[in-house]
């Protein structure tokens, strides 16, 4: 419950501010500075009062330059007041002097509020969908002056001030107006513009001054290790991506080719001196590379502001600010636009599952558990030593939902991959008995998080058709990628963690033992269409001692490369959208580290170049053959041809779609060539080999079928006899005459 604050009388009988008010303003403890400072009525006239440390005399002027009064110093700390020759209340400018010189300043307390009653209503209701236009720091013109409007939510604070280099980081200088119905504090500070660092100085409900807080809605931040927010002009980029956006607005993502290149922007490449590439430099290098390699989308690991490089961005303190590591926010807009013009979508990793407890961040923001739960059994994450958002609080849900809408609107991103969804859905996630609190129904499901995810997805899909959401969800929670109105969470897609785990486990086995693990491959098709799946070979699999994908493959070096190529073709032929982490497309040998660039010199070596060429060709086939993508999420697009040949570790299936020729995918996961191997096919005639991962051009042994096989009818069955190269996947496309 919010405690009422005492507001002193504006003036005494003589028009002077009460001494207690003067002392409180100078000390920075007054509960309502707008009742004292600025232009105040005094009898039939007006007085002006201001707090300007270091000044010895002050003259008041209107904004048009008319002199309207001299102010006397009531307190040596810098409190001035004096009568004005004004007929109506209006903003003032002051000419301040001391022994060292003079300066001009505009009085922020002579301006009215910027936010209005409708803002209060929708903010309090938690239904405001344009909070990013109201909260944070906005450069505006207000009542005849230019400056920055600051607004922040801190309902339990006794006092909130905006501090920065413009006021010597002195919290007494710019205490904010408390909009008591919403807990929003606001202040228009004239005469400052873009590029000014700032934070909020907050006095908690117990009267204790908190560590300075960055702005939760900051649109720009300082480069770490500095942690201040920075005033910024709104994005001014002139977009040229309407064709790209129109395509995806009218497309069904499930039936389009979606091949995602996962990128950590800070380590894909670096400058020669080890510094980060700017967004413009990344655009000039990364976009052409992705186009050449054939991916349809770039997915960035979190690029919002974060203080600690080894967190890879997952411990974000600035959800609304593209990281200063890569330049200004407009640079990111230019990158996205450039990608779109080249036909590449941009997906962002988004982290509403937890937030770090850095003292300048959201933790105990106003001296209370505001964004998080007060009880650590709900508000603290044992895996990451982070706080957990209070999804039962409408203001917190609104903060997060607005952030999702912000990236879609302001930066035209094509999708959000939501991190660690499983940790949000279960109250007992990574917790032992007694370390968690059941929901109101006695269960382990986090019903508040479910409601939040459903609302986020409804708002994103409702306001931004063409933008997709993808859940990293590792459990069997039902209907993750089903619509909310059908009882689902509302995501467009879900990562298929089972595919990743089972296949990597299979390929780590020596080929002679794979016949005993045949089910690792076939089991995934039991549930392959229960969700709209993305098949992820992500950063999580190539860090923390796990090695690289190449190193996970069993056998000697030749077998590792052959198996990896066969694995990729198997995956690109498998139902589901594709995701591959950077460096794995050319078989990076060293485990990934955020502290160094990828080993690009490996592309000079034949086997590594061969893996890259395999991925490039697979992406081309995936995009150009409707059979390989048009029914990725529907069982009608898949049928087994060979499912039970565990003795030879051979698998074969058919991919099909209404508007393309069928494609047969055949994998031989032993180093033994299988000659005269019979594969059933649905149609008699010629089937053209469209890829063979054992081709010499890829670094393979060059065994194959001279580019074509003939399927013949034998009674009621149709089949082709062919050579299956060692450790290979081949694809055959029906080629009617």
Question: What does this protein look like?
Answer:
There is one protein chain. This protein has 737 residues and is an alpha+beta fold. Among the domains are: 89 residues, Sandwich (Immunoglobulin-like); 115 residues, Immunoglobulins (Immunoglobulin-like), CATH 2.60.40; 101 residues, Golgi alpha-mannosidase II (Immunoglobulin-like, Sandwich). Helix content is 22%, strand content 26%. The protein contains 16 helices and 34 strands. The strands form 7 sheets. It has an 8-stranded parallel barrel with strand order 15-16-19-22-23-24-25-26, surrounded by 4 helices. Strands 27-28-29-34-31-32-33-30 form an 8-stranded antiparallel β-sheet. It has a 7-stranded antiparallel β-sheet with strand order 1-2-5-4-3-6-7. A hairpin with a 3-residue loop joins strand 4 and strand 5. Helix 4 runs parallel beside helix 5. The N terminus is likely disordered.
Features:
cation binding; elongated; 34 strands; Immunoglobulin-like; 8-stranded parallel β-barrel; single chain
């Amino acid at each position: 419950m919010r405690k009422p604050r005492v507001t002193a009388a504006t003036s005494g009988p003589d028009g002077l501010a009460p001494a207690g008010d003067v002392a409180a303003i100078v000390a920075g403890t007054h509960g309502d500075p707008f009742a004292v400072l600025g232009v105040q009525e005094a009898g039939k006239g007006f007085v002006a009062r201001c707090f300007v440390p270091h000044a010895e005399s002050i003259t008041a002027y209107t904004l048009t330059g008319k002199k309207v009064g001299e102010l006397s110093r009531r307190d040596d700390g810098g409190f001035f007041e004096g009568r004005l020759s004004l007929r109506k209340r209006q903003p003032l400018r002051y000419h301040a002097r001391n022994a060292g010189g003079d300066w001009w300043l505009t009085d922020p307390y002579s301006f009215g509020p910027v936010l209005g009653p409708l803002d209060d209503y929708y903010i309090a209701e938690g239904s405001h969908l344009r909070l990013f236009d109201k909260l944070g720091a906005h450069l505006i013109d207000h009542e005849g002056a230019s400056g920055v409007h600051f607004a922040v939510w801190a309902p339990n604070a006794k006092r909130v001030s905006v501090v920065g280099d413009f006021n010597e980081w002195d919290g007494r200088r710019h205490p904010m107006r408390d909009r008591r119905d919403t807990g929003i504090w606001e202040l228009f500070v004239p005469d400052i513009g873009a590029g000014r660092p700032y934070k909020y100085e907050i006095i908690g409900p117990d009267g204790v001054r908190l560590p300075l807080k960055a702005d939760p809605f900051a649109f720009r931040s300082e480069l770490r290790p500095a942690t201040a927010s920075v005033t910024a002009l709104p994005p001014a980029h002139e977009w040229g991506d309407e064709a790209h956006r129109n395509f995806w607005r009218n497309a069904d993502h499930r039936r389009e080719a979606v091949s995602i290149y996962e990128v950590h922007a800070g380590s894909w490449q670096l400058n020669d001196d080890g510094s980060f590439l700017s967004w413009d430099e990344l655009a000039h290098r990364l976009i052409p590379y992705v186009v050449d390699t054939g991916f349809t989308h770039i997915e960035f690991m979190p690029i919002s502001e974060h203080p600690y490089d080894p967190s890879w961005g997952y411990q974000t303190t600035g959800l609304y600010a593209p990281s200063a590591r890569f330049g200004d926010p407009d640079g990111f807009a230019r990158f996205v636009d450039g990608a779109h013009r080249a036909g590449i979508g941009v997906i962002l990793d988004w982290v509403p599952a937890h937030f770090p407890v850095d003292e300048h961040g959201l933790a105990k923001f106003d001296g209370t558990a505001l964004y998080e739960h007060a009880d650590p059994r709900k508000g603290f994450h044992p895996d990451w030593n982070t706080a957990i958002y209070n999804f039962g609080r409408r203001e917190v849900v609104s903060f997060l939902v607005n952030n999702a809408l912000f990236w879609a609107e302001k930066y035209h991103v094509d999708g959000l991959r939501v991190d660690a969804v499983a940790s949000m859905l279960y109250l007992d996630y990574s917790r032992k008995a007694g370390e968690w609190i059941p929901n109101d129904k006695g269960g382990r499901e986090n019903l508040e998080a479910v409601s939040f995810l459903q609302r986020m997805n409804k708002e994103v899909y409702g306001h931004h058709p063409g933008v997709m959401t993808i859940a990293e969800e590792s459990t069997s929670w039902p209907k993750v990628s089903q619509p909310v109105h059908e009882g689902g969470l509302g995501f467009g897609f879900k990562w298929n963690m089972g595919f990743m785990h089972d296949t990597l486990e299979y390929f780590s086995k020596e080929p002679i033992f794979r016949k005993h693990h045949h089910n690792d491959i076939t089991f995934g098709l039991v549930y392959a269409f229960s969700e709209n799946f993305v098949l992820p070979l992500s950063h999580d699999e190539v860090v923390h001692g796990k090695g690289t994908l190449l190193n996970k493959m069993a056998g000697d070096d030749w077998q590792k490369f052959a198996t990896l190529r066969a694995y990729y073709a198997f995956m690109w032929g498998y139902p589901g959208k594709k995701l591959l982490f950077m460096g794995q497309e050319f078989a990076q040998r060293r485990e990934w580290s955020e502290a160094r660039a990828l080993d690009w010199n490996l592309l000079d070596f034949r086997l590594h170049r061969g893996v890259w060429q395999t991925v490039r060709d697979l992406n081309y086939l995936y995009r150009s053959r409707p059979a390989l993508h048009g029914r990725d999420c529907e069982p009608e697009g898949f049928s087994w041809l060979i499912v039970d040949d565990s003795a030879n570790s051979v698998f074969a299936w058919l991919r099909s779609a209404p508007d393309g020729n069928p494609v047969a995918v055949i994998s031989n996961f032993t180093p033994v060539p299988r000659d005269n191997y019979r594969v059933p096919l649905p149609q008699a005639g010629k089937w053209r080999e469209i890829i063979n991962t054992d081709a010499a051009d890829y670094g393979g042994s060059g065994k194959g079928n001279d580019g074509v096989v003939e399927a013949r009818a034998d009674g009621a069955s149709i089949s082709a006899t062919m050579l299956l190269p060692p450790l290979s996947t081949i694809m055959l496309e029906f080629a009617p005459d």
